[in-house]
């Protein structure tokens, strides 16, 4: 029997979630499908780092608690995460595989140190009013640095596919489209904001990642993960969990 890959399962679950979201939007705005679901209320924009909940078949296989959320759902990253949220974060580095990796999950986490290109599925979520725009499939927390580059140069950030959200900058105004990034199509719903508001929210997201990263170190030690310090150093370096006051997002010119 063929085995579904992570990306395939993501599309199935994502399709269900999208259908539920659209039904809810229709219920909220009347009997007919809304033509324009968007907001220009800049003060309502929030940018939240999220990671993708790990996939498991039947029951979780990890020797530590994980959050009670569906696989592939987006888990918000906060400054003071609970033990199960951190457990879900690290479970993504010791995921189920075919063929199975027979090593204990805590030992598998040691691969983080040696991997050439560290990646953790997730990214940044944009919310304004009733509109929420999630990262697409195959996006990861490297989306943070993509958006730092975007705010500096206007270069289109990589934010995943199916859907492929994207952003464009016109002088001091930024529009975030919910899909169409692979073909430069402007797909609704969308969020419009100012460059200064976007930059402030990106700074806030960096601060959240910094605090989350500090909690990662404590989680690794508390759960007696081998090479805890080395694993944390690698995560901090690759995901840029650092003091945002030293981050390039603070050195962007212009309003």
Question: Which labels suit this protein?
Answer:
single chain; 255 residues; alpha+beta; four-stranded mixed beta sheet; four-stranded antiparallel beta sheet; disordered N terminus; disordered C terminus
General description of the model:
- The protein has one domain (43-239).
- The longest helix is centred in the last third of the chain and has 28 residues, at 195-222.
- A four-stranded mixed sheet has the order 1-8-7-6.
- The protein is built from seven helices and eight strands.
- The chain is an alpha+beta fold and 255 residues long.
Q: What spatial form do the alpha-carbon principal axes imply?
A: globular
Mean pLDDT across every amino acid position = 80
Amount of helix: 25-40%
**Elements, N to C (H/E):** HEEEHHHEEHEEEHH
Strand content range = 15-25%
Q: Looking across the biggest beta sheet, what order are the strands in?
A: 1-8-7-6
Radius of gyration: 19 Å
Uncertain parts: 1-43, 250-255
Largest sheet: 4 strands, mixed
Terminal Cα separation, in Å? 56 Å
Give the domain tally: 1
Structural category: alpha+beta
Q: Helical element count?
A: 7
Tell how many strands the DSSP assignment holds. Answer: 8
Question: Can you describe this structure in just a few lines?
Answer:
Helix content is 36%, strand content 16%.
List the helices and strands and how they pair.
Layout: H1 6-29, E1 38-39, E2 46-52, E3 74-76, H2 83-91, H3 105-108, H4 111-114, E4 122-128, E5 131-133, H5 143-153, E6 166-170, E7 173-179, E8 187-194, H6 195-222, H7 228-239
Helix pairs in contact: 5-6, 6-7
